[in-house]
Amino acid sequence: MATDASPPKAGPDTGPAQPTTERFVEVQESAEFAELRRAHRSFAFPLTIAFVLWYLLYVLLSNYAGGFMGTKVYSNINVAFVFGLAQFVTTFLIAWFYARHAAAKLDPKAEAIKSRMEADA
Amino acid sequence: MSAAYHSHPVIQLAASSTAEHRPLIITLFAVFVAATLGITVWAGRQTRSASDFYAGGRQFTAFQNGLAVSGDYMSAASFLGIAGAIALFGYDGFLYSIGFLVAWLVALLLVAEPLRNSGRYTMGDVLAYRMRQRPVRTAAGVSTIVVSIFYLLAQMAGAGVLVSLLLGITSDAGKILIVALVGVLMIVYVTIGGMKGTTWVQMVKAVLLIAGALLMTFLVLLKFDFNISDLLGTAAEKSGHGAAFLEPGLKYGATSTSKLDFLSLGIALVLGTAGLPHILIRFYTVPTAKAARKSVNWAIGIIGAFYLMTIALGFGAAALIGPDEIKAKNPAGNAAAPQLAEYLGGVGSTGGAVLLAVISAVAFATILAVVAGLTLASSSSFAHDIYANVIRKGKATEKEEMRAARWATVLIGAVAIILGAFARDMNVAGLVALAFAVAASANLPTLLYSLFWKRFTTQGALWSIYGGLASSVILVLFSPVVSGNAKTSMFKGVDFAWFPLENPGLISIPLGFLLGWLGSLLSKEEPDKGKYAELEVKSLTGVGAH
Question: What ipTM does this complex have?
């Protein structure tokens, strides 16, 4: 129903019909929703921990391993510079990787639950 | 002016060359202001409902919003602040670029989509969803306004720098006048144009900033035959620090305390973005969570490209201008980017004056667009969270709510003008990092617990918002940022600092998370299971989303 192609028209922002709280609890406890939750959390949580640790590694090496970070790699380019650029590369890669995961694994499940609940409401 | 003449011949030279071209500079500023005011009036005519005013009618595309998010995010801190920090401290300044970018992954993976699905106009909508409305909405409103004011302070400091550089105004009265002008403009943008006008202004600004940065990066690299190693080598040599300029530690490596400050800054940067209210409300301007995700991905691409260019701008300024001349203009390095522009065009020549004027107009546009976003976020939160839901207990009409938002805009604009007069000699990136620390301490824990932890309670939310907010603000108040440093403190000549770090994140962020957890465990009331079911199902599926 609400896809990218059909944005809601301007006007009073009352929102669509809301299912009852009982219905939300029922859906929350369903196996189908548990599967969607798992697909999101098992991807987003470990990846968040991983990139935060990777970033902290860069901050801590900068602080406490100056000698290593100052090692020349090529002419005036040192390890610190390469490490900094690597943070850019991993950020771009993770963003792309998540978008791919969400489109394949999250969107279809979410859309199925949403259209069923809104049809019932 | 005469004092500057005698003590800094360099400033005088630049000031006189810009003085001749002052009409050009003023024309460029005026063109931008006129164009954005035109957009604002046009957008204002289409702003009828509260959804138009707060969320731009939710009709923007993912790309448009990605551009506007970039325009909202790349503030004076990113342009003036980072270029200056790299020019003076070399590699240590580069941390800002990296932290500001990596931080977007937290927003992408954990916050943007659930927020779009379950909220309506403000961050408080999501924070208060499962909780008792009045106390949590009040807390969310207070924290939104405090974070935004810290952020505004930095933008105002940047505006002051630009003006003294361009118009040769060194008197306090002149600077305050310009800060006041910026304040008045932002009040006009927001009260008339609402979110629609603000979004378009931010899109225009993002395009101008990227174009300006591309031009300067190209000219810097041209000077070094596109050899980055040469650029870095020359920067290191000219800095007077040699190879150490390209290694971490120049600013933060001196003592174990300053190393902790670096760690503190690093943590605040990476966790702050996903708690910034003016960024979060941008996700309400697109129709779906999927579009919100795509706009974050666009923003990561645009912002990432810009931060890569800060390498050329910062090290270019170090190599071509040198630290002495940069510090002479502004002790914190905030003038490095405009100085570099003038150099690239040719100091004293028409080319130099034109490029200086163009880049300064871009920086001015940057400041105005961010200031408008911040003002909108804080006035929305005041009107929607505090006025409509707490003071009027949900009984205010849309019209009354929008009127309250417009009055709040005027009030917040006035506060920003007054505070802007005090923050001039601090690096603007450092100032913005404080806003990041407050956001990461007060907002992020509450947001994540609300969305993902079923045992979270009203008491937990209040403890983490107020605990994170109070600890971060109090630590800043008693840090060298406010007093005790003769060169860069906000109040010079007094010293009541006892907290050694400039950035409070290392203490206040874990404290915010700890208090949210502890407050929930010690809570007498049970978490509302039905409301959590609603929030969780909505946030992951978009059922019933506005």
Answer: 0.91
